[in-house]
Amino acid sequence: MKKYFVFFVFLSFSLLYAQEGKPKINVPEQFFDFGDIQEGEIVTHEFEIQNTGDADLQITRVKASCGCTAAHPAKDVLKPGESTKVKVEFNSASRAGKQRKHVYVFSNDPEQPQIRLSFATYIKTAKDNPDPNAPKINLSTNQYNFGTVKEGEVVSGSIKFANVGGGNLTVLDIKSSCGCAVADIANKNIAPGETSELKFDFDTSGRTGKLTRTITVITNDPVAPQQVVTLYINITPREA
């Protein structure tokens, strides 16, 4: 009799659990490819979320893998047979090349509490689509060697550069990696086909040995706005 009673209790709980049912999340499309887009473009896509179970499905949280992506469900409770959309928005500003991002959807599905939605894209920049009417800087060299000098000397050098683009080139800024190197450009507005000269002085005071410093020229060239010139020098101690 006791065995029958235990079996009856177990069967009752099983039937009750079966009657309650379970939610089941289903995503027909878990990956989407935006293809090629332009840098700065904002693109969106909607992923469909279905409840193929026999109890209410509750979407508890949606989390994106990076701050560049926002995702929101149209509704967070789905009755059996219902569906909704999760809208994914991707901001490509300040990004380039191949991108692959993920969005995680959390729910009360006991068998699959988390699913991952993914998308990919290739972000094209000015390098991919050069404008023939844009300025373009061309340095005669990206390095300069002062050779061997005595400590305490101030040595000078220069390199030429040209505007080989179709628009006016403007030098916006010149930065040095240390106070020992000072650079300047006489003509900071260079028309197409014209050349200019980057001049620099290196103060060796208080320095010895082989040193490497850089000068960065910043222009309105949309493809290569920053050009780095590396300076090499070997400073020997002054004779006592």
List keywords for this structure.
disordered N terminus; 1 helix; 240 residues; Immunoglobulin-like; 5-stranded mixed beta sheet; mainly beta
Protein architecture, described:
Helices cover 8% and strands 55% of the residues. It is mainly beta. The strands form four sheets. Strands 2-9-8-4-6 form a five-stranded mixed beta sheet, with no helix packed on it. Strands 11-18-17-13-15 form a five-stranded mixed beta sheet, with no helix packed on it. A four-stranded antiparallel beta sheet has the order 1-3-7-5, with no helix packed on it. The radius of gyration is 32 Å and the shape is elongated. Mean pLDDT is 90; it is low at 1-13. The chain has two domains: 22-124, Sandwich (Immunoglobulin-like); 137-236, Immunoglobulins (Immunoglobulin-like, Sandwich). It has one helix and 18 strands.
